[in-house]
Amino acid sequence: MQIGLVGLGKMGGNMRERLRNAGHTVVGYDTKPELSDVGHLSDLVTQLDRPRAVWVMVPAGAATQQIIDQLASLLRPGDVVVDGGNSRWTDDEKHARELDARGIGFVDAGVSGGVWGLEHGYALMVGGNEEHVARLRPIFDALKPEGPYGFVHAGRVGAGHFAKMVHNGIEYAMMQAYAEGWELLERADSVTDVREVFRSWQEGTVIRSWLLDLAVNALDEDEHLDRLRGYAEDSGEGRWAVEAAVDHAVPLPTITASLFARFASRQEDSPQMKMVAALRKQFGGHAVESVKKA
């Protein structure tokens, strides 16, 4: 299958490679010429056979809106656009209306997998019209992990990004729990090898997980996380999840507390945020801030 891919950063570039490895034809465009297959977005569109499919992997908000606006004028009725970034689900509804007015389909895809997706595959949470989703199944099947799991058609437009938002809220809470446990162990005089305590939990315990494995990776690289500043960004989904919980009158105390813990990292060098920052780097390749030496 042919597909255009707009945005070839850490995830987009790996997705292009995974799709090509599966035998699909990918025409990639990025504002960085050294990453791009074509010089302009219009060149990407002209190289695809109709009906065309274009997957957008750029930051949520203004950047996504700009690409959607450009594609609306370049594509034709029967084509379809996939937003695979971390857009807010309410933006999906707006984009779908704008493109539908021109006869262009729209699918939102929440994508999880970070820098490990090339090797292990990406979990995909998809929203949109059944016809559009079915057309794109060869692409979804190539991107997802092998086996029966890792893909869901979650519902109508917006459902994919809503599901990814909830996923990320749970991720916030799980990382915060590991970080709090790590700090408490570090403070206890009787515990002399915190890293090996974490390692011992990787088998046979009810808290074993991929995040725990990544925490051990981070501690192997920097046993006491001394090289990291205790600062961790929040990418937006945590805030949106808390807002959605208020709108739906759903109690979300754990996810809300983990979001506020991120805010605490803005004020001082938080030991817990060292672990959260280390985990975000491990699974997503997110930037971390190093301790500034005097």
What does this structure look like?
Keywords: Gluconate utilization, Oxidoreductase. The chain is α/β, with parallel strands linked by helices and about 290 residues long. It has two domains: about 160 residues, NAD(P)-binding Rossmann-like Domain (Rossmann fold, 3-Layer(aba) Sandwich), CATH 3.40.50.720; about 120 residues, N-(1-d-carboxylethyl)-l-norvaline Dehydrogenase, domain 2 (Orthogonal Bundle), CATH 1.10.1040. It has 13 helices and seven strands. It has a seven-stranded mixed beta sheet, with helices on both faces. Helix 3 links the parallel strand 3 and strand 4. The protein starts with a strand and ends in a 10-residue tail after the last helix.
In brief:
This protein is of the alpha/beta class. 50% of the residues lie in helices and 13% in strands.
Rounded Rg: 21 Å
- The count of strands amounts to 7
What is the count of structural domains? 2
Cα distance spanning the termini = 55 Å
Chain-averaged pLDDT: 94
- Total of helices: 13
Secondary structure topology:
Blueprint: E1 2-6, H1 10-21, E2 25-29, H2 41-46, E3 53-56, H3 62-74, E4 80-83, H4 89-100, E5 105-112, H5 117-120, E6 123-128, H6 130-135, H7 137-143, E7 151-155, H8 159-187, H9 194-200, H10 210-221, H11 237-248, H12 253-264, H13 271-284
Pfam families: 6PGD, NAD_binding_2
Keywords: Gluconate utilization, Oxidoreductase
Family: Belongs to the HIBADH-related family. Belongs to the 6-phosphogluconate dehydrogenase family.
